[in-house]
Every structure is written in structure tokens, then in C-alpha cells.
Amino acid sequence: MNQDQIRNFCIIAHIDHGKSTLADRLLQITGTISDREMQEQVLDDMELEREKGVTIKASAVRMAYQSTDGQIYQINLIDTPGHVDFAYEVSRALQSCEGAVLVVDATQGIEAQTLANLYLALESDLEIVPVVNKIDLPAAMVEDVAVELENLLGVNPTDVICISAKTGANVEAVLEAVVRQVPPPTGDIDDSLRALVFDSHYDSYKGVIAYVRVVDGVLNDREWIKMMSNQVTVEPIEVGIFTPGMTPRGQLSAGEVGYIATGLKTVRECRVGDTITLESNPSAEPLPGYSAAKPMVFAGFYPSEGEDYQILKEALEKLQLNDAALVFEPETSNALNFGFRCGFLGLFHLEIIQERLEREYDLDIVATAPSVRYEVVRAFTSDVEIIESPADLPDPSQIEEIREPWMDVHIFTPNEYYGVVMDLAVKRRGELTGQEYPAPGRIILRYNLPLSEIVVDFYDKLKSATRGYASMDYEFKGYRSSKLVKLDILVNKQAVDALAMIVHEDDAYNRGQKMVTALRKLIPRQLFEVPIQAAVGNKVISRANVKALRKDVLAKCYGGDVSRKRKLLEKQKKGKKRMKMIGNVEVPQEAFMAVLQLKED
After folding, report:
1. What is the model's pLDDT at position 420?
2. For the domain with range 297-367, which CATH number is right: 3.30.70.870, 3.10.50.40, 3.40.50.300, 3.10.20.600?
């Protein structure tokens, strides 16, 4: 097809503003999917996406649309996630488009990820098509939100398209706007092939399937291709497009979006962000790729059955192919044996990876408390060690100082939340380094914050405190010495190394008390009393007991001498004492997850 009749665009929005529902209506209007095949969130084909009602993976689809002037256009849509943990998916999808439909909920207005994703789109020089969704709801503030978009983008409020993706009202206007406003691709069809890999997944029959946007040249079926980053060459098994299922097409030319079934069997040979070219006529230079993702949360993943270690390793490798933000390396634990230390973008990302491992690979996973990387300076020798797990921390007498990573954090927020954000940052040991006013009513606060303080629930607290309007970006600043201690959790007087954490000295008592309270509710009752303790070094700072289950040994006593009852109770007491000495308490998975979600009062 002539490049002038191709349009590549994505849908960007805050979570739950209606991206996937809009994609459904566009597929119906263009006849890509028949009414019989239609289902809600048709592009969210992962079971988890349907269950949680969020898009996790960016997905692509080709549609044919006849505009009001009678021209037929090939429209390539890429549906992107809205959750902050998957902003990396959004940044990759934007690289393969010329335009973006910015969807804003008429009842919520502009929110944090609306801004964050918009800034990403503007950095990529995309044409923005503003859309207000959910106009059918009674609480819709259509005119107010159109004015917000006018202030944000400088567009005329009359140019903002008002739709209801649920009912289909005015949705065709979005397609017309895409055709009119989004520029066609500008690649050279006669040049050497250059195709950007913007996503991928693993297929057990076809190997690595690369989602590509062809920038220059033409790719034909069965032509040998080369990955420009590592010089791997391969003959593709299949070349095709998404409709939205994979449909073999035999050829992809400049400006088109499709897939290449490479047949490659190892993850490392076809990376997201790589450029694919022809082996026979290679391009001189690759396309600019993507900046590497920045993992925030590190946690240990262990199989509950030791023999599943190899399956877990293979599963993580396959997930890493789909999710370039996931990093992992082997580690061992006294309580949990062999496993992997994994890096994630946030807690939601951690939950999703864990659930995918359990569902798609039938694994039973135990996840440890999240932490960050620390530098430990040894006493006497002044050697510096990198510690990724609290269990690896040496004896306090061997430590001269512990350094933790600090981040340079930028928080974008409306003016009215200035005090709330400052209060939140100060509680997390934040140091204000500057502030800017980029637009009327908005402020950017710059802070230095320890990564350990923002790693677990800082995003959640920020969103709650600012009604979702604040957004945050961060970059690594350096390591700084802090008063840190190791907080051990003992269950039945046995230290559970997977529950240990490194905390600031001033916060140790508070965190220990919360941990003990949370675990007391989660650890099942035994036939003997189970003490749960939080300790720093040899000092117990908090304790609670899980009460014993009691068997009614007096049930058969109908009256009679009281000494008979005493004798039975004494016998029970001795039995419980013996049981306690040899009793083994299993810590349930929920207990490990409780550590991740410790909330402030």
C-alpha cells in the first residue's frame, strides 16, 4: 500500500480511562472483528489483564478504514498500558508511531499518567489527538475537561473529540481525526531494510516472535535477516500482520507494523529495541533503540518445591523476552534454598510477574520482602561490598558503615497539593533541592530521597494524597552513608531470613511492631503457642503470640471430682510442651506478601 495511506498511532491514557474499550469500538467500526467474535477488551488477551481490568502488554492490530472522502487507509493501532509500572511498555510503543490518541475520562479529568504519557509522546514528536471519553456518565464534566486539555495542549476546545467508547457514540470521529491529523510514515521503501523491534513474545513452535515497525526497505518471507546488535542471522519462519490474531502476509514494507517469527530459541538473540536488517543487503547504521528500564524493587523468587528451580529459571528467561524491564540473577536462602533475585519497576509489576509464573508455568512461588542494593564498608579493612539481600548483611561488629542509594526525584503536582507532597517526602527522609512552576497552577518539586523509602508504597501514597494528579520521575544520584540496621523476624524462635529487612535505625521499632502485628493475623494457629518476634541484633523490639488451638479434653467429664479435670488438663499441658519443642511452623505465602504491603497508620 502507498505510504500516504498508512497511519500508525497508539492510544495513551491514565489507567482505567477507557483505552481498551475504545480499541474494541475501533475494531468493530472498521469491521476488523465481527460482532460474533467481539468480546470486552479484545486486545487484552492475557487472562491476568481481563481479571484485573488493566492492560499489561502493549498489543498491535491492523485495521482497514474507508474515510468520508472515499479513500481507504491502512491504520495500525498499538494499545498501551496505563499503569505507572508499565510506562516502559508505553515508551517502546510510542517509538513505532507517528501519532497518539490522548484519552481523558470525562469524570476524572487529567490525571498523573495522562501527563506522564503525554510528555513521553511529545518527546517522541508525535501528533496528539485529544479525546474526552465516558460522556454518557451522569458525573461527566465534558466542558471542564475540554478546557483542561486546551490549557495543557493549546488546542481549541471545539477540536477536542467527545465520545463514549462504551456506547460507541461519536467514535468514528476518532478514526477521521487519525486519518486527517496523524502524518503518514516517512521511510524510504527503496533503502536497505531497517525494522525496529518494539515488542516480542516466545512461541514454543515458532521461537521468538518479534513485533516490528518497518522504517525503511521491504522484508519478504524467507529472506535471511540479521540482528544488528549481536550480528545473529536467521531465516524467518513467517512474516505477517496482526488482525488482531497473527495472520501470515509474506511481505512487510516501509511504514507497516507486523511480526516476524524468527525461529530463534534463546532469549538473548532478539532483544527489544534491536534493529533487524537483511543479511544480503545490510543497513549501515541501526535505528536509535530505547533507554534501558530502571528496576526499582528487588525481591527473591523461590520455588516452594526445590526440584522446580530449573523450570523457574526457564520461565523467567521467557518472561524477560516479553518484559525487558525484568532482571534476575541466582541466589540462595537458608529458609528457602535456591532461587533468584529479581528486579522490578514497582510492586504491581512484581505481583504481575509472580502471577504469570504461577499461572502460565504452573509454579508455586515464594516471594521475599522487597529491598534495594546497599554498599557495606567493612570495619578494619575498609573493603566495600554490594549487598542485594538483607540476609547477606554481615555481623554489626564487622560493619564500619552502610551506604544506601539516593535518588534525584521530580514530583509534578497541582499547587493545592504542595503541602501534602512536602509532608509525605519529609516523612520519608526527603531533602528538598528545588522547585519550578512550569505552568499556572502546577509545580515541580525536586527532592533527594532514599530509594528504600520510595520502593514499596511511595507511589500509592503520592497518588492517594493528590487524588491521582501527581506524577513522579527519578534518577539515580549516588550512595550515601545512613544509620541502617537489619530487622530480623523470628517465628517460633527461628529467624526467617526471607522476612529480614534493612531499615533506618529510627524506624526499626515502628516497622518491627507492624510486621509482628501483620504476621500474627496471617500465621495459622498450631496446637501450641507460637511466638513472633522482631529483633535488631540480639535485642527483641516487638513480640506477639499466636494463641494455641485448644482441644476440649474435658468434654467427657460429666461432674465428678475436680482432681480428674486437673489431671486431664495437666496431661494436655505436657503434650503441648513436647509438641512445641519439636514443632515446625510453616510461614504462608500471604505473610511474605504482607511485608510488601505494610501500610502506614
Report:
1. 93
2. 3.30.70.870
